[in-house]
Amino acid sequence: MPLRAEENALVRPYYDAEELRLELRLQRERRTAAVLAAMGIDYPNPPPARAWA
User: Fold this and answer.
1) pLDDT at position 21, please?
2) Is 37 helix (H, G, I), strand (E, B) or coil?
3) How far apart are CA 49 and CA 12, in angstroms?
4) What does the pLDDT read at residue 19?
5) What number of H helices and E strands is found in the chain?
6) N or C: which end of the chain has fewer CB within 10 A?
7) What share of the chain is helix, strand, coil (3-state, %, to 5)?
8) Taking the model in full, what pTM does it have?
9) CA 14 to chain centre
C-alpha cells in the first residue's frame, strides 16, 4: 500500500513554519524592492527569487 502525504506527517511542523516565515520575509523584501524601484530608489541587496517557486 503506497504512503499518502495526507495520512503521514513526515516533516516536523516547526520546520514547515520556519520555511513559511522565510518565504514570507523574502516575498516582502521583493515587494519592497519593486515598489522602491518604481519610485526610482535603489534598494540594497534585493533577495533573489526562488528557482522552484
Assistant:
1) 87
2) helix
3) 25
4) 81
5) 1, 0
6) N
7) 50, 0, 50
8) 0.58
9) 15
Residue for cell digits 517557486?
Answer: 53
Residue 46, C-alpha cell as written in the block: 534585493
Helix/strand/coil (H/E/C) assignment for every residue in 15-34: HHHHHHHHHHHHHHHHHHHH
**DSSP 8-state code for residue 2:** -
Spatial distance between the Cα atoms of 23 and 2, rounded to a whole number of angstroms? 30
Report how far Cα 24 is from the mean position of its chain's Cα atoms. 5
**Which residues have C-beta within 8 Å of that of residue 49, sequence separation ≥ 6?**
30
pLDDT tens digits for range 1-53: 666 666 766 666 666 778 888 889 889 988 998 999 999 998 887 666 665 54
